[in-house]
């Protein structure tokens, strides 16, 4: 599980981030919502340990900084929004970089790499050169890499996704979010994703946190957080909130 | 890719063997080929099959052999350092000179040439170059280190600024020098392996072994670094410690090479580039193959330097630039056509 208490980050005179308490449990999919500059990426940097946190970020009750780095890598994976790797690795080599913190043998490692490439729908890209792939394909290759990285976790792993659907086409967006839900339910992954598409949040997230100017202004189920009032207030857009034929809430 | 690496290694190894034989048997003094070879086997086996005068034997064993080995080791050191720096900066055009080692070492050597008497210069020049090279790269590294780790951007800019200052300092010293020192200075700056002796060979061999072992140990970490520093950190790599060690290792290797043999450019730039096209960017194969190919390139250049205008000698730095420069332009053109 991932837990945050008294997380404050000051930039100049303003709080870039000020979150009193928040936690994500294994088996849950969390969406972090908010406008541009609301503090979503900053929060993700603190959660991933990329930026040192003045408050406490706890991974399985232990502060992030106290984890031995290799062990932490096996339990906390981050999918970056994009990656400008310009060296001509093959897709499979990029995915294999996920083996770095693991203790698998060569054969087992290859099996894991192939399994994760199948799971993320990029098994057919194996020999292709990474720089020649499309943005969406590159992102899926990295997802496979992060899943390899988390494949040896002894406790429930945490997966942080930074706008995982931004480069994907419609079908891949839904496949990717379904995969995230599947990982949460069947393997007890704890998933935290920055999402811009509110409909994806409504459909796939179990919990939402809405950030505005570094504050968590709304926390709860997707239906509690994503409503007409909040969209009007924080995005400045008067949306139509509809109910689809199968009873799902849809924003238009 | 794995098969490609192994066949490349075998091909480079065989090529290196024959080029090394060429280097040992050819030179300004004409010595019959089979006697040259017998001298070598004599030296290994302790026999005395070669029918050569003592001075001829000395040319092979005390001049050509150390020089050949020195070229191989320095070429390997420069190429490996280049590969490591390119990984560190995630830029295939980076060069050991970029972190200021070459420039700093040049200032140290030039000052040492200027201040020392001819009797002292054999130890003062290498020492001055090495110390100044290490000092400069550490200074640049400190400058580039901020609250959130090392900024590669500032590291590069600082390297450029300090190289420019070093250039100015060398200019001042050159301006103040008399004719003999001026000649020494310009010869040193162009690089030569003529000063090879067994002590230098042992030092170079030691430095090469240290670099090769440490860098190979970090091959996997260097691969993750190509993804970016945050990504490498997320994969469990202690990026700061890795960068520190890389910079010190490269400063050591390049500082030593530059101090003993002057500025020899292009080896660290062209060789890793070429190996990446041959066997892919993974450091597991890139580092050892670069070492082989770097040794080969510098040895070929040195043979050229000795033979082209024999009995006069060309500075080897001119040869590496002549060989490496057009090759590098070719690579750039190819690269551009691909995109």
CATH level 3 topology of chain A: Rossmann fold
Number of helices of chain A: 9
How much of the sequence of chain A is in beta strands?
25-35%
Radius of gyration of chain B: 20 Å
Domains of chain B, number: 1
Name the helix and strand elements of chain B from N-terminus to C-terminus, one letter apiece.
Answer: HHHHHEEHHHHHHHHH
Low-confidence stretches of chain B: none
Shape of chain B: globular
SSE diagram, text form:
The complex is a heterodimer of chains A (252) and B (339).
Chain A: E1 2-11, E2 14-24, E3 29-34, H1 40-48, E4 56-59, E5 62-63, H2 69-75, E6 76-79, H3 91-96, H4 106-119, H5 135-149, E7 158-162, H6 170-187, E8 190-194, H7 198-204, E9 207-212, E10 215-220, H8 222-225, H9 228-235, E11 241-243, E12 249-251
Helix pairs in contact in A: 4-5
Chain B: H1 2-25, H2 33-45, H3 54-89, H4 101-115, H5 121-144, E1 145-146, E2 149-150, H6 152-176, H7 179-190, H8 198-217, H9 219-225, H10 229-234, H11 239-261, H12 267-279, H13 283-307, H14 316-338
Antiparallel strand pairs in B: 1-2
Helix pairs in contact in B: 1-3, 1-13, 3-8, 3-11, 3-12, 3-13, 4-5, 4-6, 4-7, 4-11, 5-6, 5-11, 8-11, 12-13, 12-14, 13-14
Overall description:
The complex is a heterodimer of chains A (252) and B (339). By secondary structure, chain A is of the alpha/beta class. Chain A has a single domain, classed as Rossmann fold, CATH 3.40.50.300. Chain A is built from 9 helices and 12 strands. A 6-stranded mixed β-sheet of chain A has the order 6-7-8-3-9-10, sandwiched between helices. In chain A, strands 2-1-4-5 form a 4-stranded antiparallel β-sheet. The model of chain A has no long low-confidence stretch (mean pLDDT 89). Chain B has 14 helices and 2 strands; from the N terminus they run αααααββααααααααα. Chain B has a two-stranded antiparallel sheet with strand order 1-2. Chain B starts with a helix and ends with a helix. Helices cover 78% and strands 1% of the residues of chain B. Chain B has 339 residues and is mostly helical. At the A-B interface, helix 2 and strand 6 of A face helix 9 and helix 10 of B.
């Amino acid at each position: 599980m991932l837990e945050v208490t008294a997380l404050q980050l000051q930039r100049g005179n303003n709080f870039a981030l000020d979150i009193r308490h928040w936690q994500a449990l294994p088996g849950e999919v969390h969406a972090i919502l908010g406008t541009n500059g609301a503090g979503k990426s900053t929060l993700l940097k603190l959660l991933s340990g990329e930026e040192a946190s003045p408050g406490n970020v706890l991974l399985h009750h232990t502060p992030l900084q106290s984890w031995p780095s290799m062990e932490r890598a096996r339990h906390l994976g981050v999918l970056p929004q994009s990656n400008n790797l310009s060296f001509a690795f093959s897709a499979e080599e990029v995915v294999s970089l996920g083996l770095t913190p693991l203790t698998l043998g060569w054969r087992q490692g290859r099996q894991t790499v192939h399994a994760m490439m199948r799971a993320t729908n990029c098994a057919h890209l194996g020999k292709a050169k990474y720089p020649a792939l499309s943005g969406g394909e590159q992102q899926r290759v990295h997802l496979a890499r992060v899943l390899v990285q988390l494949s040896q976790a002894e406790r429930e792993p945490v997966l942080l996704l930074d706008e995982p659907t931004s480069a994907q086409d419609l079908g891949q967006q839904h496949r990717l979010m379904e995969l995230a839900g599947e990982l949460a339910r069947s393997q007890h992954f704890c998933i935290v994703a920055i999402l811009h598409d509110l409909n994806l949040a409504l459909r796939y997230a179990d919990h939402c946190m809405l950030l505005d100017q570094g504050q968590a202004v709304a926390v709860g189920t997707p239906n509690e957080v994503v409503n007409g009032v909040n969209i009007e207030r924080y995005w400045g857009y008067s949306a139509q909130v509809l109910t689809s034929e199968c009873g799902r809430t849809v924003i238009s | 890719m794995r098969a490609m690496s192994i066949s490349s290694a075998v091909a480079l190894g065989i090529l290196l063997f024959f080029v090394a034989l060429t280097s040992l048997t050819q030179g300004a003094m004409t010595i019959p080929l089979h006697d040259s070879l017998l001298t070598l086997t004599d030296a290994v086996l302790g026999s005395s099959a070669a029918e050569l005068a003592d001075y001829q034997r000395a040319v092979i064993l005390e001049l050509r052999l150390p020089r050949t080995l020195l070229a191989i080791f320095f070429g390997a050191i420069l190429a490996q350092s280049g590969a490591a720096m390119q990984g560190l900066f995630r830029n295939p055009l980076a060069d050991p000179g970029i972190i200021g080692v070459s420039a700093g070492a040049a200032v140290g050597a030039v000052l040492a040439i200027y201040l020392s008497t001819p009797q002292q210069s054999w130890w003062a020049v290498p020492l001055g170059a090495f110390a100044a090279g290490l000092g400069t790269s550490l200074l640049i590294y400190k400058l580039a280190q901020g609250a959130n780790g090392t900024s590669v951007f500032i590291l590069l800019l600082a390297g450029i600024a300090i190289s420019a200052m070093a250039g100015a300092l060398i200019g001042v010293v050159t301006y103040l020098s008399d004719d003999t020192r001026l000649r020494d200075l310009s010869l040193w700056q162009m690089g030569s392996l003529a000063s090879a002796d067994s002590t230098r060979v042992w030092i170079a061999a030691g430095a090469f072994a240290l670099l090769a072992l440490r860098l190979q140990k970090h091959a996997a970490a260097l691969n993750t670094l190509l993804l970016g520093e945050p990504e490498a950190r997320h994969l469990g790599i202690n990026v700061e410690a890795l960068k520190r060690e890389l910079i010190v290792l490269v400063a050591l290797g390049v500082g030593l090479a530059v101090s003993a043999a002057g500025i020899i450019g292009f080896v660290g730039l062209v060789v890793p580039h070429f190996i990446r096209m041959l066997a892919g960017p993974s450091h597991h194969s890139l580092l050892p193959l670069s070492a082989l190919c770097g040794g080969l390139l510098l040895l070929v250049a040195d043979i050229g330097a000795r033979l082209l205008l024999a009995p006069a000698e060309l500075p080897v730095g001119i040869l590496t630039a002549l060989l490496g420069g057009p090759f590098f332009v070719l690579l750039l053109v190819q690269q551009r056509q691909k995109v």
